[in-house]
Records
---
Amino acid sequence: MKNQTTPGTPEDGPASSLLERQILSVFLALILVLGTVGNMIVILAVILSHKLRTKTNLFVVNLSIADFLTSVHLVWIIVAFLSEDGWPLPDGLCVWCGFVLITCIGASVYTLACIAINRLVLIRYGPAAYRVLCRPVIIAAMLATIWAIPLCMASIPIVSDFGELGYSSRFRTCIKNHAHQYAKQYDILLSLTYYPVSTAVIIISYFKVFLYLRSRVKKLAPGVAEATVSSVVQESDLRSRPAQQDARPKLRERLDKRQVQVTKNMFYVVCLFFLCTTPYGLALLCNHLICLRLTSYAAVVLSLNSCINPVVYATKHPDFKKVIQCILLCRPRKIPQRIKFCGDT
C-alpha cells in the first residue's frame, strides 16, 4: 500500500487521549449491538411477512442492509481505538473496513434521500405518479445508483494515488490514512459527494410534503366544518345556534393539532438526519486543530445513524410494528400474512 505523507501533518500523536477513545468505544459498542440487532429484525420482518414485501419497503430493507454492514464493521473501529501500538491485525482487514464503511455510509445517506423522494411523490402527487416511480426498472436504477456512487468513491484510493484507505495513527481509527498527501482533498471530495445533494433532497422533499399537507388541511377545514355543523342540525332540532358555533372552534382545534403533529414528524426526520451527518461532514471540511480533536466524536455521532434508522423508518410503520413485536416476543405464527416454510402446519 502507498504511504505518502504530507509534510508538517500532525501525525506525532493521537487527536484524542486513551480515556476519550475508551469512552467512545463504549458508545460504539452500544451502537454496534443496537444497529446489528435492530437492522436484522427489520430485514427478518420483511422476509417473514408477505404484507411487508412491498416496493416501498425495498428502500427500507436497503437502508437496513447498509446500516447492518456499518454496525458490524464498527468492531474494527473499536479495536483500532483501543490499540496503543498501532493496528494489531493484518493491514488488508483495515483497508477492507474503510472500504465497507465509506460505501455503506454513502449508501445509507442516498437511501434516506430516495425514501424522501418516494414519500413526496406518494403524498404530493398521488398513487398514479407513485406507480410510475415504482416501476421495476426505475426502482432497480435507483438502487443501483445508491450503491454505485459510494462504491466508486471508496474505490478511488485503491485504483489511484488520491487518498489511502487504512489505519490512521492520529485518529487511531481504521478508515482512511490521514497522513497521506491527498487525505484532506479526499475528505473534501467525500463530503461534497455525500452531503450537499442528499441533504437538499431530504429538506426540499419533506418541506414540500409539509406545505402540501398544511394546504390540504386549510382547504378541507371550511367544508368539513360546514358538514359537521349541518349534521349537528339534522341530528337534533333541540341544538341551539350557540352550540352550532362551538363546533367550529373544536374542529379548528383538532385541525391545528393535526398540523402540529405533521410539523413535528417532519421536524424529527430532518433533525435526526442533520444531527447524525452534519458534524462529520463539517469535520471533513475543517482543518483547524479543534476540528481534528472533534473528528472522532463526530464519527461516533455519524455511526449513531445506523441504529436510529430502524426506529424512525420501520418501527413507526403500523405493519412493521406488529411483525417486529411478534419477532421480539418469539411468536412467529402470529405474524400477519406470515410466509409458511417447510415444516409449518
---
Amino acid sequence: MGRNKYPEQTIEHILDASTKLFIEKGYDKTSIQDIMDMLGLSKGAIYHHFTGKEEILEVVIKRRSDYAAQMLKDLIVNTQAVNAKEKIQKILLSIASDKEIHAINRILCSQIKSPQFVVAGIKSNVKDDADYISQLLSEGIADGSIQTDYPVECAEIFMMLLNIWTNPVLFNRNQLQTKQRLIALQQIMKQLGVDILSEELIDQLIFDYNSMGGFNVSK
C-alpha cells in the first residue's frame, strides 16, 4: 500500500467503523481484526494512527463528549421556554432523547465499572456539564423559577448524582431500584429549590437504560 495521502480521513473511517462495531458487538467483543476487516485496512494502517483498541475507545468517547457539549451549547441558544427552569427541563430531555448520544452510551456501559472511567466521568460532570447547568440556574434565580443560593454547587450535585449515583450499570440495580433513585433525586433537587428533574426525563432515562440492557434482571 502506498503512502496515505489523506490520514485524517483514515482516522475518521477507523473511528466510524469502531463506533459501529462497539455498538453492535460491544467493546469487549470487538477486535482490531474486526476493524481491519470492516475497512479493508492492514494492521499497520490501524497502529499507525492508534496504539490499540483502548486508545480508539478513548477517542470515540471524546467525540461523544464533544458532540454532547456542542449540542448543549446549541440547545442553550435555541431552546425557547417561559423561564430558565422550563428551559433546563427541555434541554435535559432533548439530550436524553438524542439517538446519537444514546447509541454511544451503549458503548460506555461496557466501561462504566472501570475506576478510571468513573473518575473521568465525575471530573467531566463537575468541570464541564455542571458549568452550563449552573449558568442556567443563575438565570432561573434571576427570573424566580429557581430558588437557591448555591447554583454552582447544586449543578454539580445534580450532574454527579444523575450520571453516577442513579446509573443502574455502575451499581448493578434493577429497573424499580433505579426509578426509586431518580424519584429520590427529583425530591432532593426540589428541596434544594432546583426543581429541574421532570417526570418526562425520568421516563426517558428508564427507557434508555432498558433499551441498553442496563438493568440487572436478577434482582
---
Amino acid sequence: MFHTKGRAVSRIAAVMAASGLVVGGSVATAAADNGGSTGGVTATVQPTLLSGKIDIEGIGERDGGLFTMVTSDQATIRTYCIDFGHGIDIKSEAKYRESPWAASPLGAKGREGDAAKILWILENSYPKQSDLKALAAKAGIADAAKFTAEDAAAGTQAAIWNFSDHLKATPKDDEAAALRNYLVGPANVGIKNEPTASLSLTPDSLPGLSGTKVGPFTLNSSADKVNFALSDDTSGGKVKLVGKDGKAVGAALNGPIAKDTQLFFDVPAGTAAGSVSMTASVNTAVPTGRVFLSEGYTEKDHQQTMILAGSDRTTVPVKVKASWQPKGALPSATAEVSCVDNAVKVTVGNTGDQEGTIEIKPGKSVVVQPGKTETVLVPVGEDKAYDITVTGPNKFVKEFKGVLDCKVATPTPSVKPSPSPTGPQLATTGGGAGTGIMAGIAGALVIGGGAAVYALRRRGRHSRA
C-alpha cells in the first residue's frame, strides 16, 4: 500500500522496472455476475490507482482511491471499490460488466439507504466534481492549494467504505480526511433512484410460434438514441421488429427511452421454422452509480465489486436472437442474482402451444403451460460459485454461471504477494492484500539506489511512510 501524489505512480513503476523487481498479489473471491442478463458495457481493469493511505479502524492502513478501466473501444471509465472485504489484482486485466444494484451487495436487504448515500457521494465528489478548488470550499478545506486529486480520490473512497462496508475509514492526509467528513456528514441527503443502464436488452433469446409476435424483449437505456440492425434472418426479410403497439420500429429509437420498452419480432403465419438476430447499440456515457461486477465465473477468478464514478462516451452493443416454429412447447429461461433472497432467480417460460416440462438443476422440475412463466429460487451460499443448467423440450439447454456476493464480507488478513511474470502490480485495495506491496516498494527503493530515493522524496509534504 502506498500513498501517491502527483506523478508518484509513474515514478514507483520506473523504480521497479529499473531494479527488476516484480510484484504480484492474491486474488480473492468477488461479486456475483449479472445473472445471465444481456447488456451493459464491459471493461478491463488497468494497473493504475489514484490513491492515498486510509486508516481503517480495527484493521489498519489500506491504500484506497480511484480505479481506471478501459472498454473495448478504448473509452475510459473510473470506479471506486464497494467491496472492501475482497481483493483485486489490478494487473490481472480482469473483465468487468455493468450490472444492476440487485446483483451486488447494494441489493441486499436493508441496503437502500446505503446505496442512496453512496450515489450522492459519487455525484458530489471527485471525479464528477472535477473543480478541486470548488470541492475544497464545500468540504471546508482551508488551504485549497494543498488539496490534490489524490486527496480527493482517497477522501471519496473512505466515505464510500463508510456506507458500502460499514467501516470507519479515515484518510491519513488532512485534506482528504476533511473531504471524507463532509461526504458522510449532514450534507449527504442521499439519492434514491438507481441509475438506468447504459443499454440493457433482455432476455438474450426467445422462441415463438409462426404467425405470432415473438417477445417481449425488454429494452432500457440512458442513451438518447438506440440503433438496431437485423442479421442472420432465415425468413428472407419477412420478419419485422415492432413495438408493443405492433408498429414497425425501424432502424432506431430516439430518446428518452421509456422504462421497460417492449420489442417484438412479428413473424408472418406460414413462415418456416427459423430465426433472426438483432444487434442494438448506443453511444453514450455510462451513468454514474452503475455497479461493475467481475466477470469471472469461479471463486478463484472473481474480484471485488466496483461502482462507477465517471465515464467517457463509449459504444455499447447487445445482441439478441428470436426463433420460431409452427407448433410445440417452446421453452425459454432467464436468470438474475437476487441479493434480497441470497439466491439466483431463474424464470422459465413457454411461448409455444403445448405444455412443457422444464428441468432446473440444481433446483426442481416445473411444468409450464403455453404462454406462462414460472420462477424458481436457487439458493447459493455467500461467496460461492453457482452453475445452473436449464433443459426442456426441443433440445433446449441454457446455463447460468457466476459467484454470489451479497453481503459485506469480513476483511481477510494480509497476504504476502507472489512474484508475477507480467510486471509490477501498482495498487491493491481491500481484502488486506496491500502489505506486500509496501514491502516490495521498500525493496525496490533499496535496489534502485540513492537516485530513486531522491525522486520519491520529492513527492512533497503528503508523502508519508
